[in-house]
Specification:
heterodimer, A: about 350 residues, alpha/beta, four-stranded antiparallel beta sheet, about 30% helix, B: about 350 residues
Chain lengths: ~350, ~350
């Protein structure tokens, strides 16, 4: 068992009321007609050395959030502090330095690697862009990185199509590690992989985190994977965090009705567990046309009159470190203490 | 409601119903520039009415090709080399003409695929696509079939079905498209449903809705379902019997309770150990080393041996047969569990 108690607790990343809207149009000629609120007021911290698991279904804004934090996409408003830098307001030179500290690994290792570059060129590219080292030291560094992610240096001259999915993801990870980042944004890093390969990559990421003292924002739709990797869990729904808690607390006492439905819907690999699935009815509401009040009202089993009126429920603490965005917690969990 | 494994076992103690589908020794090959590869290599399985038979495996294990072979949908460069697919009262499907198979597909046997966007026709309204099967197989008139399509959409839980029937696939969400596929598959109340990764592209809450729908349809219409998936969780929740496939062959087959309580094949054990779960946190997962072998270059002997932690001398000598453990329905392809491994 890895001892996780000795990790420092200072936040490495602080996100405050972050928003990212996209303008949408109804058709070719009607011009801009509204805003799609992909990320709509997200606030959280990540402590140095921890893994924050970000779960949610497709379209909830989790990938957009990751991209805004990695500065792959501008924010609409809000504040993101990485260590002591306000990363939404950086000039070109300091932004380049920031990119060395925050790197991303993406879901599809086939789509995210240039098929015309060899593994060597792919992993070396960030070093060239950031003018790190000489030709010789870069070569040594790339070979080092290949070994670090469990690939043989002889593979350096192969092209992406010559690797399996798991190996390609290892190249993606090596490339992200080239500049010795502090924070990795892992966006569904194992979702495209077979179960047996998924386990290899999860193990590799855990080992790298310990060895290189990395901090992870681990984005996934898979609650089983998140339970294994995350120190804390944030659940996103329609652009907002609806619940945030420590791993054990979240899986033992999910409080938000959406989290409860998500957990109940997760098929467990044990045929002897008979569970009552909470079936959500209806599909997701339109992000460009949100209802008044709580965004989950149309699918919630515990909806009351208050949920349909403005304002939206705030993300409030139910116990230290456990935040939930719901008006009806006292009715849904009558025995639980809320403070 | 979910049929539990113990109920299934109780039921199987009385005279079992004759199988609805019996696949024997099915072998399907594909010719490629690099050589001929055997995607399915002697697969046998049998399904009873009202039963969910799970086929689990990783990419390249041959599980989809098995379903396509049963449906008679293998096209060049693929071909079915040997075997038989007996459908009760209809004989061997592999000997049927294309015309006969067209009558059977969509009527007696239906299939749902992983990605409903690619299996629905983008230029036809979804109501029309559902009605097509009814006009073809039930000789309904256009208005009759259209009316029935609306009813089917309602049955699979699509709100305002009359309006939705007039929409095109791209106007529907992923979950709704998969429900349209199920409505289409269920149009003629087939006795056999082949479901190839039916929920893999869907979110977990939508997956729960679709699985629930499949169980309802099975319980009400008594259809048998061949459920293909890579997800052991879905298998545990849905199936009564399970076959684990690897590189074209069945490695292990058992009642679902037996498979999860007593996985005998090292590959099955490896698959189950690879799944992250609550108590694995902070520990390394027991991953299976290596990758799925290239079907053109299978190792000699057991095809799993170069990844297997229990590999020993007999494994290199010969491929183990699928051996039935005495007194059970549990079958396993491994020399560890065979009475006479090669010396």
């Amino acid at each position: 068992m890895i001892d996780r108690t000795d990790k420092p607790t200072a936040p490495i990343l602080q996100v405050r009321d972050l928003k990212r809207f996209f303008s949408v149009s109804d058709g070719l000629l009607s011009g801009t007609s509204g805003e799609l609120r992909a990320v709509d007021g997200v606030t959280f911290d990540i402590k140095a050395g921890e893994t924050l698991g970000l779960v949610g279904e497709s379209g909830c804004g989790k990938s957009t959030l990751g991209r805004v934090i990695a500065r792959l996409m501008p924010a609409t408003s809000g504040e993101v502090m990485f260590e002591d830098r306000d990363i939404l307001n950086l000039d070109h030179r300091t932004l380049l330095a920031l990119r060395a500290d925050i790197q991303s690994v993406f879901q599809d290792p086939f789509a995210s690697l240039n098929p015309r570059m060899t593994a060597f060129a792919l992993i070396q590219e960030p070093l060239i862009i950031h003018k790190v080292g000489t030709r010789e030291t870069r070569r040594a560094k790339v070979h080092d990185l290949l070994r670090t992610v469990g690939l043989r240096p002889e593979f350096a001259d192969r092209y992406p199509h010559e690797f399996s999915g798991g190996q390609r993801q290892r190249i993606g990870i090596a490339r992200a590690l080239a500049l010795e980042p502090k924070l990795l944004i892992l966006d569904e890093p194992v979702s495209a992989l077979d179960v047996s390969i998924q386990a290899q990559i999860i193990n590799l990421l855990a080992e790298l985190q310990d060895r290189l003292n990395l901090t992870y924002l681990f984005i996934s739709h898979d609650l089983g994977v998140i339970q294994h990797v995350a120190d804390r869990v944030a659940v996103m729904y329609m652009g907002q965090i609806v619940e945030l808690a420590d791993n054990e607390e979240f899986y033992a006492n999910p409080r938000h009705p959406y989290s409860m439905a998500l957990l109940s819907a997760l098929p467990l690999p044990d045929p002897h567990i008979a569970r009552d699935r909470i079936l959500l009815h209806g599909d997701l509401p339109d992000l460009a046309n949100l209802p008044d009040g709580c965004r989950f009202q149309s699918r919630c089993a515990h909806v009351s009159a208050r949920c349909r009126k403005s304002p939206e429920p705030p993300l409030a603490a139910v116990s230290p470190g456990h935040l939930v965005r719901c008006w009806n917690l006292a009715d849904i969990h009558p025995g639980a203490d809320t403070d | 409601m979910i049929t539990h494994p113990d109920q299934h076992q109780a039921a199987s103690q009385s005279t079992p119903p004759p199988p609805l589908l019996e696949v024997k020794n099915l072998t399907t090959e594909f010719s490629t520039y690099a050589g001929t590869l055997r995607a399915v290599d002697g697969v046998s399985l049998s399904l009873s009415p009202g039963e969910v038979f799970g086929v689990v495996g990783e990419s390249g294990s041959g599980k989809s090709v098995t379903a396509l072979s049963i449906m008679g949908l293998i096209r060049r460069p693929g071909r079915i080399v040997s075997g038989s697919v007996q459908l009760r009262d209809h004989g061997d499907l592999l000997t049927k003409s294309h015309a006969d198979m067209r009558k059977i597909r969509g009527d007696l046997i239906s299939m749902i695929f992983q990605e409903p966007m690619t299996s629905l026709n983008p230029v036809f309204r979804v109501g029309w696509q559902i009605a097509e099967a009814l006009r073809l197989h039930r000789n309904m008139t256009k208005p009759e079939a259209a009316e029935q399509a609306v009813e089917l959409l309602d049955r699979v839980g699509i709100g305002s079905p009359r309006q939705r029937a007039r929409e095109f696939p791209h106007q529907l969400s992923g979950g709704m498209r998969q429900r349209v596929m199920i409505a289409m598959a269920m149009a003629c109340a087939p006795s056999l449903l082949l479901a190839d990764e039916p929920t893999t592209a869907l979110d977990v809450t939508v997956q729960a809705q679709i699985l629930d729908l499949m169980i309802q349809l099975k319980d009400r219409d008594g259809a048998a379902i061949l459920l293909i998936t890579h997800d052991m969780g879905v298998i545990a929740e849905m199936a009564q019997k399970v076959a684990v496939m690897y590189a074209g062959v069945v490695m292990e087959e058992a009642a679902v309770g037996d498979l999860f309580d007593n996985p005998m094949h090292p590959y099955t054990q490896g698959l189950l150990d690879s799944i992250p779960h609550g108590t694995s946190r902070g520990k390394a997962l027991k991953a299976i080393p290596g990758i799925v072998p290239n079907l053109l270059h299978l190792p000699t002997g057991c095809r799993y041996r170069d990844r297997c932690p229990a590999a020993h001398a007999p494994c290199a000598r010969a491929e183990p047969p699928l051996h039935q453990m005495s007194g059970t329905t549990h079958r396993v392809r491994c020399w560890l569990h065979h009475p006479e491994p090669p010396k």
